[in-house]
Amino acid sequence: QVQLAESGGGLVQAGGSLRLSCAASGRTFSTYAMGWFRQAPGKEREFVATINWSGGNTYYADSVKGRFTISRDNAKNTVYLQMISLKPEDTAVYYCAATSNVYYYNNYALASTYPYWGQGTQVTVSS
Predict the structure, then answer these.
(1) What is the Cα gyration radius of the chain?
(2) What is the distance between the terminal CA atoms of the chain, rounded to a whole angstrom?
(3) From CA 39, how far away is CA 56, in angstroms rounded?
(4) What is the pLDDT of residues 70-109, one digit of tens each?
(5) What is residue 89's DSSP assignment?
(6) Burial 59-74 (b: 16+ CB within 10 A, else e)
(7) At a CB cut-off of 8 Å and minimum separation 6, what does 62 contact?
């Protein structure tokens, strides 16, 4: 089992940048694929980005491609989401998630693929 804690959220103007971090507990972090999801008020939780166990494969939602970068440091048990050129529509609570699901590559964009979740961090982008 793994416990996750996000940090780095805040208020930023449109066009600005933020870097989110997600620290994981346990000594098996490198065996989990990690994902970032977000949920805006009144909307369903949506996929943002994911990175596989080694960091060799990353995938992004079309809405953030070219603006967000996911990365991980297995030595620090941490996954990051670097966000640039932020837009008001990026405003949401951002959650990190972890999975060791063998069907990860077929279902990485589904929230149900990830059994472990953090509490979330608020990102607000003002216009």
Answers:
(1) 13
(2) 40
(3) 26
(4) 999 999 999 999 999 999 999 999 999 999 988 899 999 9
(5) G
(6) bbbeebeeebbbebee
(7) none
